[in-house]
User: Fold this.
Amino acid sequence: MQPYGLTVDKFLDHAAKWFNGHEVVEADGGRVIERATYDALCARSNRMSGALASLGLMQGDRIGTLGWNSLHHFELYYAAMGAGFVCHTLNPRLTAAQLAAMVDEAEDKVLAVAEDLMPLLRAILPHCPSVDHVVVMDAAPSPASLAPQPPLLWRYETLLETRGRPFRWGGFDENEPAGLCYTSGTTGRPKGVVYTHRSNYLHTLRALQADAVALTARDVLLLAVPMFHANGWGMPFAAPAAGTRLVLPGRAIDGASLARLIRDEGVTVGVGVQTIWLGLADHLEQSGESLPSLERVLIGGSNCPDALLRRLEARLGAAVQTSWGMTELSPIGTIAPPAGGAGAGRPPLGLDLKLTDAAGTRLEPQRGVLGHLKVKGHSVADGYFRGDADLLDAEGYFDTGDLAVIDKEGNLTIGGRAKDLIKSGGEWINPAEIESIVGAHPAVRHVAVIGRPDVKWGERPVLIVETGPKQDPGLLLNLLRGKVADWWIPAEVAEVAAMPLAASGKIDKNRLRADFAEGRIAATAVR
Amino acid sequence: MQPYGLTVDKFLDHAAKWFNGHEVVEADGGRVIERATYDALCARSNRMSGALASLGLMQGDRIGTLGWNSLHHFELYYAAMGAGFVCHTLNPRLTAAQLAAMVDEAEDKVLAVAEDLMPLLRAILPHCPSVDHVVVMDAAPSPASLAPQPPLLWRYETLLETRGRPFRWGGFDENEPAGLCYTSGTTGRPKGVVYTHRSNYLHTLRALQADAVALTARDVLLLAVPMFHANGWGMPFAAPAAGTRLVLPGRAIDGASLARLIRDEGVTVGVGVQTIWLGLADHLEQSGESLPSLERVLIGGSNCPDALLRRLEARLGAAVQTSWGMTELSPIGTIAPPAGGAGAGRPPLGLDLKLTDAAGTRLEPQRGVLGHLKVKGHSVADGYFRGDADLLDAEGYFDTGDLAVIDKEGNLTIGGRAKDLIKSGGEWINPAEIESIVGAHPAVRHVAVIGRPDVKWGERPVLIVETGPKQDPGLLLNLLRGKVADWWIPAEVAEVAAMPLAASGKIDKNRLRADFAEGRIAATAVR
Assistant:
């Protein structure tokens, strides 16, 4: 058989050749501000590779990006990866200190930044001696200069115009790195995941299966998940690979903006976290609009209770496809078919799951019991950037840190994080189960259960809630009676005005634990 | 990223684990005679690997199969490939001499044979000293023994029962060979194509895309293409990889048998050559039956004129999906989306096409002109078994030998074989164009145009037809007037009682040329 490297530049080349007239559009506030066909994008990206190379970058060098879902950001993905550089996507919702630590660890040589993030960049730069060049994306004609220089400041279009030249993409080993993305870091120091060309290529083919994301050339995809979250869930690869038209919403992902974009562009498939689609559903309910082109939305990032799922489907007039994934998985783990499934679906070909006990022993049977979820596959990390080289168990599985149950048909449901488990009297309490019951109460906006040290029991659970109208703590606890073991029910409840959230939108339990330990959150004893 | 070898045993493992209750069934004469779930099949195949290893086979050794679409044949695919042996599928419709030459060249150590093909086997064996063991598939309790021994004769079930043991699948390099399949050999000596684990794995993912074969876990697939034709078009891999239920029709693929199977098993997708589906359509028309479960059939192997396609769709009550492929491509080249397309569709990701002139120079533009079709991809041969090591051009493309045109949207239509072109007066005549016009006449069963030497012009075309009611040769030629250049129109017509067909069902033009040259076919001068 022919030698044929699995490198990601082939996705954009494929779109340029076979779906040349299909467009990628960029919006701002719900209005399209720029359009480009795949063939034009491919030519520009390729010339941008030449421009980046002219800055002195070598194979494997990192290019950091701080940006929204824009055409420039999309072009940079391919300009960097196609040339053998590494695209290091950074989350602008992190703090300057967190970002500086990542840029420094990655030794990014170039930082590409959206113009409205220049203030953040200025706070980062002094701590990042590796950065030789800054490229301002989506830029007005003359961005304010950086002083003192270096680094050198480039406008994206000027760099492309003055330094751009055709570049021979690919040709290197498919196991070379293509991307770098740090995990959300809700617990401790963020950890970098290095994607290779091969892992991205194979992940794309996994995603494109008819029972998975199933994009086609007649689809129009709205990418409402940020491109700095785990490769934008792989969609910047999957869309051109399938010839799918792509809508990049820019920074605005509120309900009204998305509704307008979906209608104007005839979007058929949307991808994003649950909150985004709840916002869209609320907007549709208030405005009375409908979105006839929208066929389905893909959600991930959190469990979606069945009742919420049905409500979303009714309001959106579209199917809701559930999934589970994580940065270390490139990121798709399991996914329900577009036609509907149970829980977060099954793993498409190329990923295997295993449930173990806390000691790492495989559970038998694997179905119907909660266990520690371990994964193995062609697009799964075996370690972290500049971290331990090999985190895998003896059978080659990676520990997700999640608890999960798999039903008889093979469908996965996540049952919380293993490190959130509370050990009380030698037995485990699973906060996720308590949270899911209390969280179903309509007045409860956010709920978290954490453990506090206890002399007699080791640990005891504390219920922390953010509610709309104030609730009687005793009544909230009553919701649990008969549904969990009596000894699982917390004896203390704390109300907070605003639950602390991490950059990923998930509840920051580390901060909750610290705030509780240091007395910034006070709990009331109920029982 | 984790190391993860792309080996085909993972397909059956995946089905066994995630779609364990889904069945593969085997039929005979349209009635199901045996059922097995994927998990049972996987366990049996795996034990069969152990049995084969016990016969002394080593990594890379070839196992020839002479069989129909049966459970044993399916199990042997995985038993051989999973263990690192090579599954060499043989076409029972070839002559004993042709088969013996292939078995001898491949040095098959084991031959697995369907019981009704034992007479063919007996004719082959004396010329195949490499064969140490014969395994009789689908066997009645005691097949007649071979005398004199060796080779040793085994009943499939006895071998599995007495020698079967668990075997550790995979673990070898993904570039190791998995399969061997000889091309139909309409022209000269048949050529062996060696498939690797990697090429089969990647071909499977290409096929499973939503715009390609798009199998899902709710589909029931009828495999009406023989498993000895280019991996059964890759379906024995794609079905378990997607959790698709599989119906193996055995030897009988007549309309009545298929209709019964489709109805009884709730088949949603059928795969096979056009002739099969024409037979089914005829049966439905005669019997008045309908097949409500059938959603689409995938055809390949020949161009399907639009009118025929619509007629088929109307009679089957199902969509017809067109495609083009060849043994050297594993075999899918292009495919129209399930929702419909033009010509034979576009190449899904992982294959690139190029059109050149006869000298190999890339045509510009690549659209709207007939050219020589060259291909490059992860599942394309770069040479033949024990043949030239590298048949690729300077850009790494393989010459398909086909002529093709690609429309503005990227859809391919095959326009004949390059070697069938006739050079007349220094210019090319394309027999395929003449054949397609004359072939549309309802009385014409088969049509072929061949070149004969001509002193003045170099070559001149001869029209050869097999018709139902006898036709006036002049009237047939009149069909061409105004549709092709006048100098393309043959001046000689020959009628044959039965057009010579190769084992693939295609017209054997080599034999036609020989028969014509040696006077066994006589032509009438018309003009």
User: Anything to note?
Assistant: DSSP finds 14 helices and 26 strands in chain B. The radius of gyration of chain B is 24 Å. The first strand of chain B starts at residue 23 and ends at 28.
